[in-house]
Design brief:
155 residues, alpha/beta, four-stranded parallel β-sheet, two-stranded antiparallel ribbon
Length: 155
């Protein structure tokens, strides 16, 4: 194919076959299995929200290898839709074990769920080994006629 045709071809496909901004293989129906994440250094942030309400659809150990946060917020309170996902919580352990440095990580669940409690109890020793702390919501905010759990984070 001549260079000018190749150039037009690649421009006409701009933005296609992307999942969360990452190029995918159009021959595959499973974006997760076909992600081609460019290699590069990890990204360090203070706070990261685990995507998609902690669903296993878009988050795997590679996410935690690449996005290194002091605090991860775990949302999700819908067991019927697999939120939060036990596989994502396990991926945090696997990804963090690859960091090569023992930075403190705090996991902040937004809801007290059975999945989170079971994961916490079953992996507590591994969490300690990897310097991961799970922050329990022990504070409550009261606004008008409503109250809800809350947590304060200082940087």
């Amino acid at each position: 194919m001549p260079e000018d045709e190749l150039s037009r071809s690649s421009h006409s496909n701009a933005g296609k076959n992307l999942v969360n901004g990452i190029k995918t293989n159009p021959a595959s129906n499973s974006p997760k299995s076909s992600l081609s994440v460019p290699m590069g250094p990890p990204v360090y942030v203070d706070l990261a929200y685990i995507p998609n309400h902690c669903s296993g659809k878009n988050t795997d150990p590679e996410f935690f290898k690449r996005v290194r946060a002091s605090y991860y917020v775990v949302s999700g309170n819908d067991a019927a839709n697999g939120e939060p996902s036990r596989a994502v919580l396990d991926a945090l352990l696997e990804g963090k074990s690859q960091w090569g440095e023992n930075l403190q990580v705090t996991l902040i669940p937004t809801h007290d769920t059975e999945v989170t409690r079971e994961w916490y109890q079953q992996t507590h020793e591994k969490q300690q080994e990897l310097n991961i702390m799970v922050l329990a919501s022990s504070s409550t905010v009261v606004m008008q006629d409503e109250s809800f759990p809350a947590c304060k984070i200082e940087f």
